Inverse folding.
């Protein structure tokens, strides 16, 4: 599975809030990437058709976006999550930009922003919308529509 390098690289730079928390759920979701941008760079053309959502026992979440870039580039939005009437809302407190799949070139920075999951991917198509601003002023944007198929649990 293509997420194994991503998971391995994230384990090399463990999130501060998840150091004592365990993954509660880890899902791979397939669908259509509708937006992926880092600063002025529109990288939707390398945005993959699969994302990973990890929810930890302390109500924090990482939303990982894989790309088709041969170098293994990826982006992760991290922060606290809560259920809403529409789905989930994540308050982003940091962003990890993986420049390659090795884990040696990850750039992690404090950020502010929000991701929303509108709908329930367990019951049909759902949409992720994310916007964040890094402490260095870099703007991040992401939109993804799931394909309506059941997410794949990576903990089973």
């Amino acid at each position: 599975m293509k997420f194994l390098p991503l998971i391995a690289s994230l384990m090399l730079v463990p999130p501060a809030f998840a150091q004592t928390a365990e993954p509660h759920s880890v899902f791979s979701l397939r669908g259509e990437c509708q937006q992926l941008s880092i600063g002025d760079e529109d990288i939707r053309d390398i945005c993959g058709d699969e994302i990973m959502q990890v929810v930890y026992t302390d109500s924090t979440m990482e939303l990982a976006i894989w790309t088709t870039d041969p170098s293994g580039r990826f982006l992760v939005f991290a922060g606290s999550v809560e259920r809403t009437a529409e789905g989930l809302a994540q308050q982003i407190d940091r962003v990890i930009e993986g420049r390659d799949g090795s884990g040696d070139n990850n750039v992690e920075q404090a950020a502010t922003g929000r991701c929303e999951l509108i709908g329930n991917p367990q019951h049909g198509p759902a949409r992720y919308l994310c916007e964040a601003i890094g402490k260095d002023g870099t703007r991040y944007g992401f939109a993804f529509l799931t394909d309506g198929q059941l997410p794949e649990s990576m903990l089973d």
Q: What stands out?
A: The longest strand covers residues 23-38. Residues 70 and 100 are 8 Å apart (CA to CA).
